[in-house]
Amino acid sequence: MLTLDKIYHARYVLRDAARVTDLLFAPKIKPGTNVYLKTENLQNTGSFKLRGAYYKISQLSEEEKAHGVIACSAGNHAQGVALAAAKNGIPAVICLPEGAPISKVEATKSYGAEVCLVPGVYDDAYAKALQLRDEKGYTFIHPFDDELVIAGQGTIGLEILDQIEEVDAIVVPIGGGGLASGIAFAVKSLKPDIKVYGVQAEGAASMAASLREDEIVCLEKVSTIADGIKVKEPGDNTFALCRDYVDEILTVSDDEVATAILTLIEQHKLITEGAGAVSVAAVMFDKVPKEHKNIVCLLSGGNIDVTILSKVIERGLLKSGRTDLLAIQLEDRPGQLQKVSSILAKLNANVTSVYYEKASEGSNITDCVIRLNIETKNFEHIAQVHKTLADHGFKLV
Question: Of 104, 163, 167, 298, which one has the fewest beta carbons inside 10 Å?
Fold first, then answer.
């Protein structure tokens, strides 16, 4: 059974392994609301996962340590186990889904662990890890459904209560549920009036479905840019704890996550992965009840693949009205593009690319279509651009 004593013991054990991460005031995330960011993206290994992995491994018997450990992960738990095993002089094997970001795979190897890439998603890596455990006699370190792992993650809840006196709600990412379980248990045990909200990606909302059905649900497929919470099925322990201690499960879209990542970069100079930004996305897009004044958003990790980051930024710019694609049908004769450019310049809309196409079937044979990518300020600016072009007789298609 998970107890508050175990969480306090975990905090003692972790004092030399995990950072007490900062709680930063973020007034621009949601004007009118006091938002605070718990920066686990700046934790050692770049994720909260180090806490649970290290505490679990620290409590192994000498015999278990001698056999070595094995784990499965989308990436962050892998790094936590690898570092914890290295600090304790224990060999480690990590099974990762073959689609895990390269940065996470290489980081795991850098801590000295052996990496086994498995076709499929997290659940396939989990099955492979159990197979190797049975074959080789390793000790399995579960990424979320283990009371000691959950206790390690719960130390974040203790830190939040130490760092802020007045808090109405804590918003936490959920994949398998270990993080939310630990934080919710710790916080509710000490201050039951504080609300704890879990956040999942719409394309991987297994905990939300399970709580709605009041039984564990295994999704047929999962799809989201938030690879750290792309889990088909919650655990027995985490399902029970989230059911009893988490007030509500919220969901966010990938576009909303991309916008949150971009906002954190621009406003607070913080890099988060998709899973790390879902809490901020939930607040930004009004998924959290509006009556809460002081809200803590947990940034669970910052290990985003740089190749994905560029795509996420592009999507975030589009979602927030910072870019737009204009398709303008006009007569194919000299001076037309100059007229369009002059209008855009007066409106302070910056053109980043221009594409010329012959007009489609059904239009005049002398017409063409000009596609312009432009940088804008917001959606109101986009609407102003569209209206001004239309007022000057240009046809937007």
Answer: 163
* Residue from 128, 300, 319, 320 carrying the catalytic annotation: 300
Residue pair 121/230 in contact by the 8 Å Cβ criterion: yes
Which two tokens mark 300? 């669970």
What pTM was computed for the model?
0.87
Cα angle, residue 256 at apex, residues 22 and 288 outer, rounded to 5°: 65
300 is catalytic: yes
Task: Show the beta-strand stretches assigned E in the chain.
Answer: 23-25, 34-39, 69-72, 92-97, 114-118, 139-141, 169-173, 195-201, 248-252, 294-299, 323-331, 350-358, 367-375, 395-396
Catalytic residue among 6, 38, 49, 195: 49
pLDDT value at position 333?
84
| 152, 179 contact by CB (below 8 A) | no
Cα distance between the two ends of the chain:
62
Paired tokens of 108: 């795991």
Maximum separation of any 2 CA atoms in the chain, in Å: 82
The answer to whether 310 and 294 have CB atoms below 8 angstroms apart is: no
Residue 74: the pLDDT is 66
- Burial label for 335, CB within 10 Å (0-12, 13-18, 19+), is exposed
Q: Which residues of 39-57 are buried (b: 16+ CB within 10 A; e: fewer)?
A: bbbbbebbbbbbbbbbbbb
DSSP calls for 44-57: GGGBTHHHHHHHHH
The C-alpha atoms of residue 258 and residue 278 are separated, in whole angstroms, by 9
Give the three-class secondary structure for 291. Answer: coil
What's the rounded Cα separation, in Å, for the pair 377 and 355?
22
In the predicted structure, residue 208 carries a pLDDT above the cut 80: yes
Catalytic-residue membership of 49: yes
